[in-house]
């Protein structure tokens, strides 16, 4: 059992005997009464979605999942290929079920694969990751007002808006939940 206040994005819950993955989570504190967690769930079996409002003190049944640290190897047209860091077992994760993950997977990086009943249900992407800017247009200082941004393309194909001073080849940290620029990384 897990309390409503402890539910996080990526948690697995059982609803009506079916496993669901938490894809969105938002806490709300009303003027009166107890705080609540609004969660959006995606069925692991059929992909259907479900929205729930759970008081933070109420317990709900969580699905027992296993986490395996695995190194991302490569992708082909059908699968992302991973290797378990301890057993060297190979895993194939269908690209069609994890389409958005392709922008965050970097070869030879380690990720956690989430398994339910020996089936991979999700790839846990770190909240913040460092990427190299692959394509960027140059802007001249004074082109526009302060706080202006421009789109840049990362080495994985992810497009993010960044401040004008960011140049091609630089490393930047991205919040993977919001796809927002966090900071420039200096080595």
Describe, in plain words, how this protein is organized in 3D.
It is a single chain. A 5-stranded antiparallel β-sheet has the order 9-8-7-10-11, with no helix packed on it. It contains no helices and 16 strands. The protein is 0% helix and 53% strand. The protein has 3 domains: 59 residues, SH3 type barrels, CATH 2.30.30; 59 residues, Nucleic acid-binding proteins (OB fold (Dihydrolipoamide Acetyltransferase, E2P), Beta Barrel), CATH 2.40.50.140; 58 residues, OB fold (Dihydrolipoamide Acetyltransferase, E2P), CATH 2.40.50. With 187 residues, the chain is mainly β.
Helix/strand layout:
Elements: E1 2-3, E2 12-15, E3 18-28, E4 36-43, E5 49-55, E6 59-60, E7 66-75, E8 79-84, E9 90-94, E10 110-116, E11 119-124, E12 128-136, E13 149-154, E14 159-163, E15 171-175, E16 180-185
Antiparallel strand pairs: 1-6, 2-3, 3-4, 4-5, 7-8, 7-10, 8-9, 10-11, 12-13, 12-15, 13-14, 15-16
Can I get a quick summary?
This protein has 187 residues and is mainly β. The chain contains no helices and 16 strands.
Key features?
187 residues; mainly beta; SH3 type barrels; OB fold (Dihydrolipoamide Acetyltransferase, E2P); five-stranded antiparallel beta sheet
Q: Could you state the order of secondary-structure elements as H and E?
A: EEEEEEEEEEEEEEEE
Mean model confidence by pLDDT: 84
Largest sheet: 5 strands, antiparallel
- Rounded to the nearest angstrom, the distance between the terminal CA atoms is 43 Å
The proportion of residues in beta strands is over 45%
Kindly provide the radius of gyration, computed on alpha-carbon positions and rounded to a whole number of angstroms: 20 Å
Number of helices: 0
Can you tell me the residue ranges where pLDDT is under 50 for at least 5 consecutive residues? none
What helical percentage do the residues reach? under 10%
> Architecture of the largest domain, according to CATH?
Roll
Number of domains: 3
The CATH topology of the largest domain? SH3 type barrels
β-strand number: 16
Look at the structure and give the CATH class of the largest domain.
Mainly Beta
Q: What class, by secondary structure content?
A: mainly beta
Within the largest sheet, what's the order of strands? 9-8-7-10-11
